[in-house]
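Hey, weird one. I pasted the TetR/AcrR family transcriptional regulator sequence into the form twice and got a warning about non-standard characters only the second time. First submission, copied straight from the form history:
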Amino acid sequence: MPRPRSLTPGQISAAALTVIDRDGLAALSMRTVAKELGLSTMALYRYVRDREELERLVVELVLGAVDTEPPPPGASWRARVEVMVRRLRDTVGAHPSVVPLTLTHRHRSPGVLRWSETVLAILTEAGFAGEQRVVALRGLLAYVIGAIQLEHLGPLAGEGTVAVSALPPDEFPYMSETARHARNVSAEQEFIGGLTVLLRGLRPAPGPARPTRG
């Protein structure tokens, strides 16, 4: 048997991501990734221990592409946070099936850690501190993750909205009317509208801001 060719982590993670994008997260396995690479399953074990390591490689491939540079300091803190949230949504939204993996492996991903560090710096400069800063960061992450899943698993342009709009108005007056309006809301409008509401509700506690990082 010829010796298996040398593979880089980038090649393995790209093959795993291809499997997920094409066939869904449930299809990810050592066998399917090996097949994508043109290897036997046993040959892939020379490079990767198990599916969990494959997952971590995929998460870093996706999240490592997020631009984590701080936005220009001249804008308001809300505008700067919006830039960071948009970057995360645009990058991860290109691979929506990976979203569950970002939750599982976020604490091991340098990409998401760098993104969070930049957002925390912006929040700190705005006057957020302590538990309030924790809640603000978690709220932003929860929003962008949930928004991506809604956009791809339950879009307003999908059959669910049509079905809700056809509910009997005497029994579901608000649901049916709201769904009729929802059919005209684009995914971008929905995302930015929700983010605007969230950012308006985030306010630092009164008092002096904590020192920023050096």
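That's the output from the first submission. The warning seems to come from a hidden character in my clipboard, not from the data itself. The domain at 64-201 is CATH 1.10.357.10 (Tetracycline Repressor; domain 2).
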